[in-house]
């Protein structure tokens, strides 16, 4: 039997408070009765709060998400250690704090041993035994440490931990030990150390993705686009995200909030709330600096460098009279003319892209890239290369959407050969864009679907 503790849980009673005789004196009993009908056990840890308007509900979530953001901004390092030996199991840097984990684990073990034996330690605060917190200074950092039954967690922080972060640490320890008890047991018995596959759970629990580099999706359904256009904050978020991406391959939420706040002039927590909703809809996508930069570098090497060497890689411009004319003209162009021409090509490309003429946009971008790379304008090469990369993603994502839709229709009609064919096309596209978007789970699901359909042949 597995017992689930669900906290916090929200419940909409769907009654107008102005027409309810029980509001507000008997709300708790009424809600409890309705939840018990759903099979929920409410005998323990029941915290009851009335939020009697949509504005208050939204404000509650805004404050909650903002606190999550502040907490993860405060964390520089997450360290998991075996409780008895003090050996590290996971050391996960969040912001490159430059912590020597070997020295840190030794320092922690020595301080805990001394604290537990003498109950005093200079600069070391023990808030009791049996799984309570230790807080102390280490170099310029604040450390928050807590023991579980088998493991110990240490957070390296800029500032002292908030109450919400302490609650999160407590919940994390119990859940982590429950989830990965077999791994922990294997480490205790045999010294085996295979905890890398638990990092995703750690980053999810501590909301680390809120400080990851971010990119934008380019596959927006008409309904989603219409909703964004109606929401001035979300529209500003998307517009400024595009501006940030024009000069770099990723952006950070903190920089985006700063940009948006200068225009819309509202509280940061309200902006973050809208950003969070866009992340949930996968319109803003967390990635990693390494992934984004590696992809851009590979892209520039395989595209920009070859164009710089006059090895035209796109049939869109290789047989185009305009490129031959540009090649001749470029031999006698001044710096001003080069800059003006690059800007002109980019503007034409952006206009074509807005009109969904993607092939035309690609041609104009590559003309601009040809000039920039030929004259060794490194910053322009990087910027234009990223624009082409984003356009390629957009084209791939539209092709993926089409392939999956056709495959699903064929599957429903039991035309399994056609369905498999289009699913395989979709799988190829997913593999092509996997490096930047992290499509591993979607790839696995599609592979399973193809294998399942093949059994019908």
Protein architecture, described:
This protein has 457 residues and is of the alpha+beta class. Helix content is 60%, strand content 9%. The protein contains 19 helices and eight strands. A six-stranded antiparallel β-sheet has the order 2-1-6-5-4-3. The chain has a two-stranded antiparallel sheet with strand order 7-8. A hairpin with a 2-residue loop joins strand 4 and strand 5 (141-147). It starts with 26 loop residues before the first helix and ends with a helix. The relative contact order is 0.06.
Describe the structure using short key phrases.
Beta-Lactamase; two-stranded antiparallel ribbon; 19 helices; 8 strands
CATH architecture name of the largest domain? 2-Layer Sandwich
Radius of gyration: 28 Å
- With strands numbered from the N-terminus, the spatial order across the biggest sheet is 2-1-6-5-4-3
SS content category: alpha+beta
How do the SSEs run, as a string of H and E? HHEEHEEEEHHHEHHHHEHHHHHHHHH
CATH topology of the largest domain: Beta-Lactamase
- Beta-strand content estimate: 5-15%
Q: How many angstroms does the end-to-end distance come to? A: 40 Å
The helix content is 55-70%
| Count of structural domains | 5
- Average pLDDT confidence is 77
* Biggest sheet features: 6 strands, antiparallel
Estimate the global geometry from the Cα principal axes: globular
Please identify the top-level CATH class of the largest domain.
Answer: Alpha Beta
Number of strands: 8
Total helical segments: 19
